[in-house]
Structure formats: structure tokens, C-alpha cells
């Protein structure tokens, strides 16, 4: 049932890695996560740009989402060209070579009990 | 006031059944839930595909949402053609025979106090 | 700066009033809430239908969102033509006489610490 | 990779600053936040209107999101033309001079453990 579903451009207005954590890692470590679905028969090459309030954007960060696969990444895992800072107000722009579906999910365990958010970012062609 | 509202294709980028739970079942059991509204006069036949990071997709799983009804399912209830694993990064693609509206809601009770997320997945024709 | 912003049809796939509560009322009472923005110069007359898994829909429930106003309602406040049950899987379909913007927000205080979800429902013309 | 991504009109149906807080400020102070991504090469001039249930809208509040930057604001920081009240049901309408992407994120620390919501508001041209 292969099919191209989604968009090539995704934008996250509120990106932030919470500054500290409670609970066992990696499950309960505070993180800002991005998940992608590539339902197509072609690998998706993604470029991710990180925007800041007071400096030029960082990136691009390169990601591959193989054909007919999902990929879940945490922003603190990105190291090239530079680490993504914690406790910093950011935004994201993602471009993909083929249509994909993105979802942002943040786990905030700064307090003893974790809080979660999840959104479908803004999609564009 | 019968009407066809929604789309035929729905995609979830971040699907995950939390790995453990606190609190009384079934209310407080960690789960990944999908809810559907079929406002039309025709039954909706749904096919759900589960995508993984490191293997081919599972499914299709068949669901029926009767005419003028809602249906709420938990992914751990799906058994055919195979159970949906917990604590695994996944994504979902859902196709319906008639337009429906989908919503994803996850209850995460891995810690003593539960956390919730809910999103309208990405919709397509 | 008056303007007509939004859509005339809104659909909620996952509607549920949590079955019990902790904490002071009304702030911390579990509830399923709907909020509307009517940015236009005309009053918006809304009809809300409640869908179930095992019976015909309830409603319509009538709501008015005055011109240039917001309205926030909790589903447990709706009494006519019948109360909306708690601890029941439901979905919603809302029709408005003029374009409005809707948002669903649920407070779940079944455990000592509350959890929140908020989504923009599916919009249609 | 400069580009104009997003929309010029954004609407939030459910806006509310929680009435009290637990935990260290400013991180754990209850707040209603708005984040914007301006991926374009032009500064974005924003006008924000606050809608109420029982009075005329307040505003406009003026914000600038510089070119190629993000901006994260908390509604309690807005002072001109008047402060935005807490514990009050509100809605928002935002107009921008260039396309931007908005996201709403609320931290509710009225109880000891915080709860979070985040949504992409309704977008229009």
C-alpha cells in the first residue's frame, strides 16, 4: 500500500529542550523529540534548521528517514554542525526531499512527575 | 443532520505505547489511543498500517466505524495480524473507505501521576 | 479590525469527560472544555451534536457566541436536550452560522496532579 | 535557505493564564506562551488582539519578530495598552505583516506537578 503522504516543509514555532530532568534515563530524561513517517518507497533526506531569538540559525542538520520507515530523534542527539542547546527558546524549519509526516513531542521531567506535549507542526509545500 | 466530514487518509508521526503503568486498570493503564468520528450514513472500513524504524510495516489491521458513531480503540487491543509492541517507536497510516475524523490520545502513567497528549493527526485525501 | 476568521464545521474525534476529580472546584474539576473565538461582527449560532459508540447521536445543543467575543463551555454544563455523560467515549460535531475558531481543552484530575490536553479540532466548510 | 513559511493570521480559541503557581520562577511559573518563527528575510510586525466573554477586545498589542529569528513571549509580559488578566477565559487573534508560524504553549503549575499543553493555532491568510 505504498504511498506518498505528507508535506516537504515542516515548521515548529516552539522548540525547547527542558533544562533538567527527574527519573531514570533515557525513558524519563527531559527531551524535545521529532518523529517522522515516510510512507513512500523513496528514502527521505531531511535538512533541519534551528532558529534562535538572538543569533543566526544553526544547521542544516541532516537526517535520513528510510523508505517505508519511521524515525524518532531527540534534538540533544544532534551534534553536527553543533549541539542544540538546552533551556533555550528555539524554533525549527525542516525540509524533506519527499513528502513526510512530522510530529513534535516533548517530555518535561523537570518536576518529579513528567509532563508531555505533542503537536503536528505547521506543514507547507 | 447527517454529513460526510473528514478525510480518508490519516497519518500519525509519533506512535508509542508507554512501557509500563501506575494506577488502576483500565482507566489509568498507559495506552496509545485512536478515536474516530464517522458522521456519515455509511459504515467506514478502516485499514491501519504500523510503521517501525527497523522492520517492514505491520498490518493492515481492520477496523469498522459504524455510520453515525464514534469508535475509540487502544493499540494494545489490536491482535490481528500481530500484536502492536509496547516501548517501541512507531508511526501509523490509516485509510478509510469514507471520510472520518481521527484523533490520537496517549495516556502515560509510567510515573505516579499520569501525563496526557492529544493531537489531530495529519489528514490527506 | 473586525474580520471573519475560521470555519463553520468543527469535529472532535476524542471527547470524554473524566470520571472523577481531585482538588478544589471549579478550577481543578475534571472537565472537557470547548472554547470558541468569534472575531466577526455577527453573533454565531452553534449546534453541537454528541456521537457515541453504541447509540444514536444526542443533540443538537444550542450555543451562541456573540460577535467579537469568546465563549468557553464545559460539556458537563450542557443540559438540554439531555446531560452529556461522564466516563463515556464520545465525539463531537459542531456547526456554526458564521466562521469561528474552536479549541478543545480537557483537564483530567483523576489523579492528585492534573493532566491537560488541548487540540484544534478538525475544521471544514 | 531563507524562505517565507507560514500564514499572516493566527487564531487561538482557548487562551488562559492559570491563576496561581508552584515552583521556582520563572521556569515553573504558570504562563500562557506564544512562540513565533519568522523564517523570512523581512522583520514581521505583529498585532495581537485579546478577546473576552463579557467585554470588547483589548489591544492591539505590538510585537516584532526579526527576520530569521524566533520570538517566545508570555502573555503576562504584555503591558501596553493594558495588562492581560490571569484566571480569565480569553481568545487571541494575531495578524502579521509577513508569513510566520505560531505555536501556543501553556504551563499550568497550579498543582505541585506542572501540566503542559501545546497547539498550533488556527491559521488563515
What does this protein look like?
The structure is a homotetramer. With about 120 residues, the first copy, chain A, is mainly β. In chain A, a hairpin with a 6-residue loop joins strand 6 (about 90-110) and strand 7. The first copy, chain A, has strands at about 5-15, 30-40, 45-50, 60-65, 70-75, 90-110, 115-120, 120-125. Chain A contains no helices and 8 strands. In chain A, about 0% of the residues lie in helices and about 55% in strands. In chain A, strands 1, 2, 3, 4, 5, 6, 7 and 8 form an 8-stranded antiparallel sheet that branches. Chains in contact: A-B, A-D, B-C, C-D. At the A-B interface, strand 2, strand 5, strand 6 and strand 7 of A face strand 1, strand 3, strand 6 and strand 7 of B.
Brief overview:
In chain A, a hairpin with a 5-residue loop joins strand 3 and strand 4. The mean pLDDT of chain A is 92.
Which protein chains make the most extensive interface, counting residues with beta carbons within 8 Å of the other chain's beta carbons?
A-B, 33 and 38 residues
Strand content of chain A: over 45%
Parts with pLDDT < 50 across at least 5 consecutive residues of chain A = none
Q: Pairing-aware structural class of the strands and helices of chain A? A: mainly beta
Compute the number of strand runs of chain A. 8
The number of helical elements of chain A comes to 0
Shape of chain A: globular
Distance between the termini of chain A: 23 Å
Instruction: Report the mean per-residue pLDDT of chain A as an integer.
Output: 92
Major beta sheet of chain A, specifics? 8 strands, antiparallel
| Relative helix content of chain A | under 10%
**Rg over CA atoms of chain A:** 15 Å
> What oligomeric state is this?
homotetramer
SSE order of chain A in H/E notation? EEEEEEEE
Amino acid at each position: 500500500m505504498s504511498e506518498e503522504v505528507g508535506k516537504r516543509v515542516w515548521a515548529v514555532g516552539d522548540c525547547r529542550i527542558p533544562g533538567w530532568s527527574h527519573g531514570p534515563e533515557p525513558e524519563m530524561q527531559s527531551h524535545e523529540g521529532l518523529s517522522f513517517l515516510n510512507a513512500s518507497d523513496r528514502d527521505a533526506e531531511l535538512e533541519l534548521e534551528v532558529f534562535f531569538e538572538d543569533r543566526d540559525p544553526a544547521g542544516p542538520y541532516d537526517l535520513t528517514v528510510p523508505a517505508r520507515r519511521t524515525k524518532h530523534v531527540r534534538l540533544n542527539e544532534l551534534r553536527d554542525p553543533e549541539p542544540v542547546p538546552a533551556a533555550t527558546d528555539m524554533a525549527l524549519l525542516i525540509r524533506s526531499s519527499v513528502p513526510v509526516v512530522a510530529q513534535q513531542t516533548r517530555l518535561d521531567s523537570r518536576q518529579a512527575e513528567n509532563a508531555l506535549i505533542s503537536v503536528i507542526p505547521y506543514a507547507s509545500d
